Structures are given as structure tokens and as C-alpha cells.
Amino acid sequence: MSKKLLHAGPLQHDEVLVLLTSLIKDQLLPHTRDAKPDTSQKQVYYFSMEFLPGRFIETNLLNLDLLESCKEILRAHHYNPDLIFQSELDAALGNGGLGRLASCFLDSLAALDFAGHGMGLRYQYGLFEQKISNSKQVELPDKWIGEDGYPWEEIYSEEAVTIQFGGRLVSGYKDNRLTFDVIGPERIKAIPYQIPILGYHNQRVNYLTVWQAESIPGQQPVEFEAYAKVKRKAEEITEFLYPDDSHYEGKVLRLRQQYFLVSAGLQRILTSFFKSDDHQIFDLPDKLSIQINDTHPALIIPELMRVLVDNYKLGWEEAWNLTTSVISYTNHTLLDEALEKWPVFLVKEQLPRIFLIIEEINRRFCLEVEYKGLEDWESFADLSIIYQENIHMARLAVVGSHTVNGVAKLHSSILKNQLMKSFSTHFPNRFTNKTNGISHRQWLMNANPLLARFISELIGDQWKTDPQALKDLLKFTNDPDVLLQLSAIKHANKIRLVDKIKAETGHDIFVESLFDVQIKRLHGYKRQLLNLLHILYLWDVCHEKPEAIKVPRTFIFGAKAAPGYLYAKRIISLISSVAEQINQDPLAKGKLNVLFLPNYNVSQAEWIIPAADISEQISTASKEASGTGNMKMMMNGALTIGTMDGANIEMTELITTEHFFEFGIRAEEVLAYERNGQYSPREIYNQDLRLQKVLQRLVDGSITGDTVAFQDIYYSLLFKGDEYFLLKDFGSYVNVQNQVQNQFLDSQTWQKKCLINIAHSGYFSSDRTISEYATDIWGLVP
Ligand code: GPU
Fold this sequence. Notes:
- The longest helix has 26 residues, at 480-505.
- The chain starts with 12 loop residues before the first helix and ends with a helix.
- It folds into 2 domains: 32-55 and 90-436 and 770-778, Glycogen Phosphorylase B (Rossmann fold); 440-666 and 729-764, Rossmann fold, CATH 3.40.50.2000.
- It contains 31 helices and 25 strands.
- Strands 1, 4, 7, 8, 11, 12, 13, 14, 18 and 19 form a 10-stranded mixed sheet that branches. It has a 6-stranded parallel sheet with strand order 22-21-20-23-24-25, with helices on both faces. Strands 15-17-16 form a 3-stranded antiparallel sheet.
- 5-bromo-1-(beta-D-glucopyranosyl)pyrimidine-2,4(1H,3H)-dione binds at residues 95-98, 101, 245-246, 294, 332-333, 338, 407, 436, 624-628, 646.
- Belongs to the glycogen phosphorylase family.
């Protein structure tokens, strides 16, 4: 136990947390059923370079059915449970949607009583902490592991494995087989740490295993400098998370991270598999499924082949059948800049045997296609896994998996019918859709206890284990009392947020205003800039026709930009600068308030989402694979303003467009413009006076007093083609935003729409998503 607890007197918040954590970990876990994994059940491993669990204390208490009683006891002893829970560190081993999805999936796997585990990396530094200084993003290291380690994890030093990089490949011939030996490889130790993932009221315990790299003692050269270098080179593998979201960087360290994860993870899985005496290698597909979260862990395909062929001496065909039966791949983006392509020379140098296997996979695949006739393919250029000195990881992942899925209907359909058309023609049954989901335990029960309690008062507790039962709320759509209470809950959540923001930033927010929220990573395609253009427009209205602003609004932004993504950082500067000007403009007072909340993360999201009135999901159609923030806000009774993109489309199918603020051009139109190059932002600009005024503000000095300050952004829209079609969608966005304010005036109708949104949000529980993966991809029996 922590040394800190040895003082006399009342316990500090973090000390109470230490006690609660140890209580859960040490006392409760050994009594739960699967403290030792039951290997007769098929095991699923979710391989991901990112996990974004946030804090565990409330989740674990909730799952153990101790949350309410624990809160009561704390209150009885004059502790504020919220303050205690908030003293837990927020583990940010991920960037955004992809990592958070992985964590929601682990939560659902355990809740549905599947043996489904996570495999990831234990980065010493998670996603950077963001500060805003002089309107600019500043990145600070996120040292999330405390002095006493991380309270939820357990180290298993004795189960460390060795990972090999580099070396010289020597082929030979033995027992009628080709053999491959790597001479003089660099060897690095991988140490597993396990974080328990508890099921909801079902006593299940699964694990998230995260690996840490260390140098191997005894191997190091004795000379100090050489020793330090070797140690450094090993440890740097798990030193930090690459802060890029949906963007790929061909850095050798990232490649080493990826191989380190798959090689370590696979060794652990196979060791545990063979612990059961009756398990034979050919049983693998019956006992094991591996899901890869985007292509980041796609090297598991050649790695499993290497192990089966070189270590277990299987023939290529046998090994290939096992590999493709075990592995399946989820694609999370169509954006070209996010599709990983590893330079051949890097892979050859770092992983010589793996490279050879990829070449062989590719050789056989190309032959197979050629044999069938090349007609579906333009040329080898669009089918070869290795092309122009690059390894196309998405192609490798498709060829080496039995199932490939996208994460929302539209995305899966573009993936199948456009981006990977030739592949889906060749493998007609391989492509499928699994629309994303979110954990309703985390995002409704934990984040919004007031709403959760109210829902249970109305329809009982069934929705907690069967979220689609939220539909029972539809009975109350015309009940004025219920709608009034719903509005009171939103109000209380808004006060909770306002107080917190006041305490942390000193900023005053008008609670009665409409809270208009855009929280997500900063990306050109997510179009935070379009939101800002609308704000600039409203600012003009404040000056020219103030009576047109009928509803005061608070715009809330939260977003981190990848440190190397300069355009995204410029938009953060712009938002912060505009916020500063508007918030001190007397003519905007009581009408417009703009906030950029620094350091957006999972814990912040838990405060903001229950307080949102409007959820901004305004990506350029076809660019957002799914989105999951859209689902979280819907479930918490916000109305969505959005384009027909990602899961927004399914949302409107559930609730009808009457309960959704739709705007903007459709995906087909965007894709057509991209093909024919005929989009002209200039033309739109010339015809829209509002737009002219708004864009002039970027270069007339009215934001910072400096006319060149935002010239680059102005240029990107007017002279550099407006890649994300902001000007094209500006008019319809402004119009629909105007409908938003008109409808907000009629509180009862508004609340009715909120209720309808909540009632249909059960479909977006990750329990539904995971059930679909389980049945359709992993072949699990519920
Ligand atoms: N996404 Br690829 C990430 O967050 N990071 C990535 O590296 C890649 C995708 C997101 C998608 O942008 C988002 O639309 C989706 O909802 C999420 O993955 C989960 O599927």
C-alpha cells in the first residue's frame, strides 16, 4: 500500500481512491469466476495500437454493482464521490475514435460474457496534454503512470517474451524443407502488464494486456556508452504514442512498435493456447479469433505465418488456411493519407523474414488473380500488395483475413464498391459492415446518472442489459411531465458543466443558452472551420440585426491537433482568437459565447456530453467512417446537426430526418466532384454576400488586429480548392442552424425530439455491435 497513507488525520481524495482501488483489485477479483481464463471457450483477441479507457474506478464499481452504495458511504463520511473519482489518472493510450472504440468493445465483450481480451502497448507517455497559450496549442508530455505505477495493472515479469528485429537472413535446406535463420538479430524483451476488464453484474474478468519494451540484460556490450545506446533503443519502442489520428507516418519506430505488439501478443496467445493439453495447432480456428483494429497490427498476418511455417513446420497452404481462418480486419478510414504503406527497404531491414513472407503471400495472390483472369483489375498496380517499393497494408490485411468490415453502412459500401472494388469482386463474401457502437454503461449510466435514474423510473431497468429496450421511452413522447423533467435533467447537467468550467478556467457561461458542442480530434475533414464560419456569420448578425438572434448560444469546442498537422493547429488558433474577441464584444454579450476547452479527453467528454443541446457532426460527406461522438450525444439527449456521413445516416434512418438537422451535399456528389475536379469555391463565394463578409474577417484585422494572421486559412478556402467543401455547404449549414434556434424556442417540441433520440439510441450500444461481430465474424455462441 502507498506510503502516503501512513499519516494521521482525514484521508485526502487520492488516498480514498487508493483504498477503493486496492479493495476492488485485491479483495474482489480473486473471487470472480474467470480469474483463471477458461480456455475451453473460444478466445477473442482485439489487437489495437490504441486503447482509450479513461478512468476505471466508476466503471469497475458499476460492473461490480457497488457504485451506488459506495457513493452513499462516501457521502455519509462527508466525501464528494465525484472529487474522489476525479483524482484517478485518465489513461490516454490512444488518439481518438479508434482507441475509444477499442475500449467500448472490451467493455461490451465482458458484459456479454465473452472471453474477449485486448492486446496493446504500454506507452510511457500517452496522448500529450494540451495547453493553449497565446491562442496556440502547446503539447506537454502525458506521464500517466504514477510513482507507484498504475493502480489497475499487474505486471507479469516472468511471462516476458523476446522480440527480434533485423539480423541477416540465411536460407538452408533441412528435412526436405527450406529453412530460414536470422543471424545476429537485435533482441528486445516484451513485458506484459494486465489490466482487468470486468463484466457487468456477471462476474466475468477479461484482460487488456499492454506490453512494455526493455533491453535484455547480459546481452549488452559492457562499455557504458554502447550499453546506454542498446537500452535506449529497446525502451524507445514503448516510450510514446504517435499522436496522429487517421494519419500515417512512415517512421521506423512506428513500424517497430507495430511488430513488437503483434509478435509479443501472438507469443502470449499461443503459450496460453498450448496450456490446454488437448489443444492441437489445427484447433486454432475453433479456439481463437484475432481482430485487427485497422491495419496497424496487420503484421500479425505474416507473423502468424512465420510461426506456423518456421516453428511448427506446417506447409504453406496449411499455415495459410489457419492464418486466414483466425484473423479478421476492420477498416476505419478511406482517407488516402491514413492508408498505411510501409517502404520495402524499412521492412526488409527491420524484419527480413517477415518481408520474405509478405513477398510470398503477394506472389501467390497475384498468381491466383492472374489465373482467374485479370478483368476486374485495372492492372497489377491496384492489386499487388507490394507496389512501387511500398507494402500496402490494407491489401495485405484484406488478403490475409477471412472477413473485412467497415464501421458504418456508407463507409462499408464505399470500401466494398469503390476503394476496394477489385478485391471485393475477387473475394465476394469477404466484405461486410459492422456499424460502430458505444458502451451505454460508460456513456449513459456512468456519465449521466440523473438521466439513467429517470429512464429506469419510467421503463424499469431492462435497458441496462438490453439497451434496445430504451425504445419503451417512446410511450412518453407526448407526456408533458416527462418532457419537463427531461429538460430539468439537461439543465442540471448544464449547471454541473458550467460550474466545472468556471472552477477550471474562470469562464462564465450562461446556463440558459443553447449548448452547441463539437468535440473530436481536429481534422480538416471534420470541419471545425465550417462551425467557426457560422459563428463569424452570427457575429455579423449581432452587429447588424441583433434581434435575429433569438436564442443565446454557447459554442463549445474541444479538440487536439496532431503536433505535426500545421493546418489543424492554425484552426485551433483561429477558434481561440475568435473566442477571445467575441467574448469581449459588448454587442455579442448575452447572445454568443465561444469556448475552446483545452485538453479534451475521455474524462472531459463525460462532463460535456450530458450537457450538450446540439451535437455537431458536420464532416464532409464520405470522409467520416462512422463517428462515435454522434452516438454518445444522441444517447444523452442532444439533437444532431449533421451531414449524411458515417453513422449519421443510420441515425436518421432510426429517428427519421424530422428529428435530426440535416444539411450539406451527399457523398456521391463529393466523390463526383473529386473525380471530375469541377468544384469551384470561387463561384459560390461570388454569389453569397454572407460568405464574403465572413471570409473578409479572416484578412481584415477584425480578429487579432493583424491582417495577415489568418491569410493561410483564407487562401485554403478561396484559392487552394477548398478541399473539404466548406463553401459549398455553408449556405445549407446556416439555414439549418437557423432552424435549430427556431425550434429551440419551443421547449416542449424540442424535448420530445430529444426523447425520441434517446429512445432509439440503444441500437448504438456497442453490445449490439459486439453481438454482431461475435455471431458473424468470430463464430461465438452467446
Ligand atoms: N479513426 Br484509421 C481514428 O480515430 N483513428 C484512426 O487512425 C482511424 C480511424 C476513427 C474514424 O475516423 C471514425 O470515423 C470512427 O468512428 C472511429 O475510427 C472508430 O471506428
